[in-house]
């Protein structure tokens, strides 16, 4: 219990001082990354500065860790809350809404319209609201607000910069290079490529990473920056991932040595026997091949012989069955059927066989097509 309490106190001191590990973005391990060399390797062109809603000259960052200001709740843009500056990097601020936890921290530029000095909300006739997911009872919000602002350091009005105007139209084109914020890790800015443009939206693709980090955004988004923006604002820029594809020319094919013409190469090319056509499956026929199957096999064998040359008759596969024109044998009725009982009936007596004129009776024809029973 004692060790846990001491550990919580240490973590609380680090959080108040603003020295927690997530508050500052990790340093770029690949300091050797150069946009100039990267553009040459990828044969790409950077997006012009006129495409972005960013100041041509980056503003200065006059904020300090621990200052209080008013900010719009990113999860509820209709409410304005009290926020505290928890970290600085370049001209970006890491903000935390008072009454919320560190899992809802967000980043804003010093010239963003989402932040304003303390008292601006009251001047506009609005009221400060508790953040979404306020950890205390809503009725205790006025007292919590009073304790939060009592003795706190307010950010000066000179630290807030005017937001630049948005471009008149979408000037992005597929294939342009830029720097963009990784929305899954908002403290990171990485090299990216414009993958697709649809109306006022731009599809941002991060170089060297899988598509899970790519996203659509408006062309006036404040999360996109021109090439070289991080170096101007002393913000760390993450190098592209390992799976970046560079446009390299294909290697030349090895020259094959000249071959002497042979008698075999002068012979006409052998044409393979075409496959047999699919045959229908007949049910209930046992012991004999259907007539349609026999005709189809004969037709396929004739086509195979016609396609082969005169000297290549021996190349016809031996797997083709011996197809001779045979008439299917006619079989009698099945045992126990009525037709057999009629055929095998005993002949009538001699008196009944002779007709009225005494002539011998004509041969009796049965119901079969090709078999007759002569008595």
From TrEMBL:
<feature type="region of interest" description="Disordered">
    <location>
        <begin position="1"/>
        <end position="32"/>
    </location>
</feature>
<feature type="region of interest" description="Disordered">
    <location>
        <begin position="241"/>
        <end position="290"/>
    </location>
</feature>
<dbReference type="GO" id="GO:0005634">
    <property type="term" value="C:nucleus"/>
</dbReference>
<feature type="compositionally biased region" description="Pro residues">
    <location>
        <begin position="271"/>
        <end position="280"/>
    </location>
</feature>
<dbReference type="InterPro" id="IPR004092">
    <property type="entry name" value="Mbt"/>
</dbReference>
<keyword id="KW-0804">Transcription</keyword>
<dbReference type="InterPro" id="IPR050548">
    <property type="entry name" value="PcG_chromatin_remod_factors"/>
</dbReference>
<keyword id="KW-0539">Nucleus</keyword>
<feature type="repeat" description="MBT">
    <location>
        <begin position="139"/>
        <end position="240"/>
    </location>
</feature>
<keyword id="KW-0677">Repeat</keyword>
<feature type="region of interest" description="Disordered">
    <location>
        <begin position="315"/>
        <end position="375"/>
    </location>
</feature>
<feature type="domain" description="Polycomb group protein RNA binding region">
    <location>
        <begin position="279"/>
        <end position="346"/>
    </location>
</feature>
<keyword id="KW-0805">Transcription regulation</keyword>
<protein>
    <recommendedName>
        <fullName>Polycomb group protein RNA binding region domain-containing protein</fullName>
    </recommendedName>
</protein>
<feature type="compositionally biased region" description="Basic and acidic residues">
    <location>
        <begin position="1"/>
        <end position="18"/>
    </location>
</feature>
<feature type="repeat" description="MBT">
    <location>
        <begin position="33"/>
        <end position="131"/>
    </location>
</feature>
<dbReference type="Pfam" id="PF17208">
    <property type="entry name" value="RBR"/>
</dbReference>
<feature type="compositionally biased region" description="Pro residues">
    <location>
        <begin position="248"/>
        <end position="260"/>
    </location>
</feature>
<dbReference type="InterPro" id="IPR033763">
    <property type="entry name" value="SCML2_RBR"/>
</dbReference>
<feature type="compositionally biased region" description="Basic residues">
    <location>
        <begin position="328"/>
        <end position="342"/>
    </location>
</feature>
<dbReference type="Pfam" id="PF02820">
    <property type="entry name" value="MBT"/>
</dbReference>
<comment type="similarity">
    <text>Belongs to the SCM family.</text>
</comment>
<keyword id="KW-0678">Repressor</keyword>
């Amino acid at each position: 219990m004692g060790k846990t309490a001491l550990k919580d106190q240490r973590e609380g001191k680090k959080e108040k001082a603003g020295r927690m590990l997530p508050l500052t973005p990790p340093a770029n391990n690949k300091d050797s990354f150069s946009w100039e060399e990267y553009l040459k390797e990828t044969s790409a062109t950077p997006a012009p500065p006129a495409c972005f809603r960013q100041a041509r000259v980056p503003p200065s960052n006059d904020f300090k860790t621990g200052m209080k200001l008013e900010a719009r709740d990113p999860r509820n843009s209709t409410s304005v809350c009290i926020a505290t500056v928890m970290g600085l990097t370049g001209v970006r601020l890491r903000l935390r809404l008072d009454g919320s936890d560190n899992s809802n921290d967000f980043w804003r530029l010093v010239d963003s319209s989402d932040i304003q000095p303390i008292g601006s909300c009251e001047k506009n006739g609005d009221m400060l609201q508790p953040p979404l997911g306020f950890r205390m009872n809503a009725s205790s919000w006025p007292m919590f607000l009073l304790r939060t602002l009592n003795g706190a350091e307010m950010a000066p009005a000179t630290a807030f910069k005017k937001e630049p105007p948005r471009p008149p139209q979408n000037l992005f084109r597929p294939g342009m290079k830029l720097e963009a914020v990784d929305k899954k890790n908002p403290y990171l800015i990485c090299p990216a490529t414009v993958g697709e443009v649809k109306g006022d939206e731009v599809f941002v693709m991060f170089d060297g990473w899988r598509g899970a980090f790519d996203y659509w955004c408006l062309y006036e988004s404040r999360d996109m920056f021109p090439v070289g923006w991080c170096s101007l604002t002393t913000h760390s820029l993450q190098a592209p991932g390992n799976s970046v594809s560079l446009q390299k020319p294909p290697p030349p094919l090895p020259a094959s040595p000249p071959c002497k013409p042979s008698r075999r190469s002068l012979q006409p090319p052998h044409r393979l026997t075409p496959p047999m056509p699919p045959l229908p499956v007949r049910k209930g026929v046992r012991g004999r091949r259907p007539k349609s199957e026999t005709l189809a096999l004969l037709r396929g064998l004739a086509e195979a012989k016609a396609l082969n040359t005169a000297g290549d008759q021996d190349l016809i596969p031996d797997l083709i069955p011996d197809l001779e024109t045979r008439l299917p044998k006619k079989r009698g009725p099945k045992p126990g059927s009525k037709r057999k009982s009629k055929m095998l009936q005993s002949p009538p007596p001699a008196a009944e066989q002779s007709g009225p004129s005494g002539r011998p009776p004509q041969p009796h024809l049965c119901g079969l097509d090709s078999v007759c029973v002569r008595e």
